[in-house]
Amino acid sequence: MSQANLRATQLVVFANIFLIAVKLAVAIITGSIAVVAVLADSIFDFAGSLFAYFGVRKGREPPDTDHHYGHRKYESLSSLAQLLLISVVALLILVEAVRRVIAPVPLKIGYAELAMMAVTLVVDVLIVFYLRNYADAKSTAIQASIGNYTSDILQNSLVVVGLFSAMSGLYIADPIAAVVVSALMLRVVWNVGSNTLGELTDQSPSQSRLDKYASAVLSVQGVRSFHKLRARSVGGEVKVDLHIQLDRQMPLSRSHAVSEKVKQLLLKKFPEVKEVLIHTEPATKRFMRGPKFGS
């Protein structure tokens, strides 16, 4: 799926160039702050898509002498960079939009400009469709891009409505649309950013998910108990490690087979789990008492 992510991010880069060109033309012709808002958003999306491309490209590199666990967190870093850019531009637009709500600015808008903005709306819909169907939506970099362009669909729709209203003489509709666009941009930052920060700080899955992992472990014949079950998300994937307790008299070859069964069950039953590290121990009362989760 990493190769698919690279193709997707390349497509996003070229699509952004087209969107920027169209929105720049409309912004120059009309002077609309709402169009300036979505133009600025597209410019930062373009910069963000470059971050996403290099993040995915770096993230798919195999482990090396400096990164024994691979480079998947580079995807999370690229996502965080995108979100920081969105935050900055959203706040700047919000300030200017509020100023124009207080003192509306007359605009010159025609049907040609409305049609051009409608084209950008169609392009955004096609981008989201492609990313959801032909890329790995579990990747945080791809998630950030999907969030950006889903928000863009709403933003461009609002801008078209605002331009139409301003063309009819209701000039305040344009900065109001810009205020809503800014709010949507900040909403994307909050929704995607919480997940990205979780990955960068090794946040574990929910306790209910960990309980399901634990139930699967205990269902394997030969496992007496377990402890130190830990999990973390990296690049949309979950990595699990745990200690399992086996019968003290169990032969080494048999304990290895049981450990392998636990690993394969977790990988097969839970699609998000991509790596499992298991340490086997002889069952003792001290180990069987816990703690079951965490270090």
Topology:
Blueprint: H1 2-30, H2 33-59, H3 73-102, H4 111-134, H5 140-167, H6 173-200, H7 207-218, E1 225-234, E2 237-246, H8 252-269, E3 273-282, H9 285-289
Parallel strand pairs: 2-3
Antiparallel strand pairs: 1-2
Helix/sheet category: mainly alpha
How much helicity do the residues have?
Answer: 55-70%
Question: What order do the SSEs take from the amino end to the carboxyl end, as H and E?
Answer: HHHHHHHEEHEH
Report mean pLDDT, rounded to a whole number. 82
Number of strands: 3
> Roughly how many Å is the radius of gyration?
25 Å
Shape: elongated
Low-confidence stretches: none
The profile of the biggest β sheet is: 3 strands, mixed
Distance between the termini: 32 Å
Number of helices: 9
| Total tally of structural domains | 2
CATH topology of the largest domain: Alpha-lytic protease prodomain-like
Strand content: 5-15%
* Top-tier CATH class of the largest domain: Mainly Alpha
CATH architecture label name of the largest domain? Up-down Bundle
